[in-house]
Amino acid sequence: MTDQTPGTYGTQRKAAARNRVAIIEAAHELFAADPLVPLNDVAKRAGVGAGTLYRHFPTRQDLILAAYEHDIERLTTTADDVLARHSSAKAAFIEWFETLSAYIRIKHGLGDALHSAAAQNVISDSWAPTTAAVKKLVDACVAEGTIAPGHDPADIIMLMSFLWRVANDDEGAAQGRRLIAAVFSGLQAPPPA
């Protein structure tokens, strides 16, 4: 039996946490390029062995859900940063939604793994923080005058969902820009009663 002091245990926990984050980051990058990437490639990119990957994520679905959850958590905390980076709240709003759509396009590429009950829980759990982030962006656009007051952030998320349905190429990007312009034209009017 190995003698473990409290310090050793703490060091092991920190290493395990670092490994978990490294695996999720590697999965994010590799799933974006190829949703069917072998998990051994994810382990290699993360700098861990396959056993370490499977200790943290026993199934492919576990890793897919963790990567998706990590991406959405990271994105929902960036609304203030995106607003600070842009002189226009509208530009920040567009950048933020384009990033969200990229995450969701990856999610759609992962197919059946995101149709389970566990996946629906992860997706449902992300709704409140996503709506809160969108509210910050909408409030900034209202203050700027590019969106009329009174629009519900949840409605705007549903409206902007076209972004993750356009093709992931130059033609889709052009279509997305045209649709965003149409959305902002509509949002300049107050919402219907």
UniProtKB/TrEMBL annotation:
GO molecular function: DNA-binding transcription factor activity; transcription cis-regulatory region binding
Gene3D superfamilies in alphabetical order: Tetracycline Repressor, domain 2
Entry keyword set: DNA-binding, Transcription, Transcription regulation
Domain HTH tetR-type: 17-75
InterPro entries linked: Homeodomain-like_sf (IPR009057), HTH-type_TetR-like_transc_reg (IPR050109), HTH_TetR (IPR001647), Tet_transcr_reg_TetR-rel_C_sf (IPR036271), TetR_SbtR-like_C (IPR049445)
Keyword DNA-binding: yes
SUPFAM superfamilies in the record: Homeodomain-like, Tetracyclin repressor-like, C-terminal domain
PROSITE patterns recorded: HTH_TETR_2
DNA-binding region(s), chain positions: 38-57
Protein name: Transcriptional regulator
The organism of origin for this protein: Amycolatopsis camponoti
Lineage: Bacteria, Bacillati, Actinomycetota, Actinomycetes, Pseudonocardiales
